[in-house]
Design a protein that fits this description.
11 helices; 10 strands; globular
Length: 348
């Protein structure tokens, strides 16, 4: 790699707060209808304020297709509610139909989101096969469940591979290739925290419950509630810690294993567990203490940290890299009209 171009987030909390509060108020006043356009304004703001190599990203949807997608989802849920009330067998059929169609919706959603996103006025694209989506999102999960989720790293790697290899910038394709070892390591590390949480909860709560059996006094009930609350909090903290550690290290692994184009332009993510834990904790406390009003500040703070720890690694001169991408400017036409609302579970 001959150079490194760091990502940069140029948004400001005060500016984003003005957009966010208008989005919130209009969504409430329109009973949620405006939320489709609010989502577009949100994506536009964060995309347009994210820069790399002197150029920013952009998002091009207008909100109409998002609203249509949400109306379809609402109609399906309404049909299910009616069926559950008057014809339970029909409700089961509807649920099965939605489940069976899920991989199709995931692919269509990925196409919609990719084709409405751009960098240097070049649209992204997604052309993953529906058959592969069924294998990744339905076939492999069944095998993972049968293994009692001990093979989860294989599922996660398959999801990343399907999602990233299906994307391209213009006609220049992304490629993901990683051994299973790194996925197994972070899975085991995160699992340790989960096991500690479960074991700690059991050792703390179960003896207390057994000691209080048959005691129906108010003091006993109060002690029971306190014990279970402390146990649940400990379990929750361990699970959250494991989750943050896993997602943080996963992002670094995925970026390191992703390249773009035949020249294999690379990426680097250097986010760290400590800062991410601090951001998650401090952001949550500030948002809760301000009843949500500091959410824009927390969002900008997180995006800025992630951008500062992300880099593009052009394999060759930056001029050659940009020329390669610019040549594909017209590869993808106008925004793709499709159902939106189901996001791919990818780390990028």
């Amino acid at each position: 790699m001959s150079s490194q171009e760091g990502f940069e987030f140029r948004g400001a909390a005060k500016e984003w707060f003005g957009i966010w509060i208008v989005n919130l108020l209009l969504s409430v006043l329109t009973l949620g209808i405006y939320s489709a356009w609010a989502k577009v304004r949100t994506k536009k703001y964060f995309y347009q304020n994210t820069w790399v190599a002197g150029r920013n990203f952009d998002y091009h949807d207008t909100g109409k297709q998002i609203l249509i997608g949400r109306l379809i989802v609402i109609a399906a849920l309404f049909a299910y509610a009616l069926a559950a009330a008057f014809s339970p067998p029909l409700a089961v059929i509807i649920i099965l139909a939605i489940f069976i169609c899920m991989p199709v919706l995931i692919v269509r959603s990925a196409k919609f989101n990719a084709r409405n996103s751009s960098w240097r006025n070049v649209r992204f694209n997604f052309d993953g096969e529906t058959g592969d989506a069924y294998r990744v999102y339905m076939g492999i999960p069944i095998l993972v469940a049968l293994s009692l989720y001990t093979t989860f790293p294989f599922l996660d790697r398959a999801i990343q591979r399907f999602a990233i290899n299906g994307h391209s910038l213009g006609k220049t394709r992304f490629h993901f290739d990683s051994p299973i070892g790194p996925f197994c390591k972070i899975f085991l590390l995160a699992a340790v925290f989960g096991v500690v949480g479960i074991v700690g909860y059991g050792f703390y709560v179960i003896p207390s419950i057994m000691d209080l059996q048959g005691n129906t006094g108010l003091d006993a009930q109060s002690k029971m509630i306190t014990t279970m609350t402390v146990g649940y909090v400990f379990l929750l903290v361990m699970v959250v810690l494991g989750g943050v550690i896993y997602t943080t290290l996963l992002r670094n692994i995925v970026y390191a294993a992703t390249t773009l184009g035949p020249n294999q332009h690379g990426y680097r993510s250097t986010i760290s567990v400590g800062p991410m834990l601090w951001l998650a904790l401090s952001n949550a406390l500030v948002v809760i203490c301000t009843l949500g009003l500091m959410l824009p500040w927390a969002q900008v703070r997180l995006h800025r940290y992630v951008a500062q720890n992300t880099a593009l690694l052009p394999n060759g001169t930056l001029e050659e890299f940009e020329g390669e991408i610019i040549s594909d400017t017209n590869a993808i036409g106008d925004a793709y009209s499709d159902i939106e609302g189901i996001d791919l579970d990818i780390a990028l």
